[in-house]
Amino acid sequence: MASVLCVDDEVYIQELYQHMLPAGGFEVVATAYNGKEALATYTALEPKPDLVLMDQRMPIKSGVEATREILAMDPGACVIVISADASAREKAKAAGATAFVEKPFVMDDLFRLLRGCLGDGH
Question: What is this structure's pTM?
Fold first, then answer.
């Protein structure tokens, strides 16, 4: 089962991920509620998660900033930026995000994207 770090400042989104991701074969190994917490959590996790789901708009540090910093320390990280703000797509790409997903999304579509990002049969 592929491991996932879920980063979102909305509690209900965190709960959605924790409830739905296991149904698609993914294990939520940690959560964070802002970009600063995401960096600390990612750094502390061993082994590193297979995937990071990163909200864009969060307090303290944005998802794009956190994505850039995670990829600076771990260029092989698979970070998917998720946002209701479609204009964040280009910023996410520029930060090196593996993919961008616009909210609201269909969970089955997210599962397909996550499996595609893994590309190794997880």
Answer: 0.94
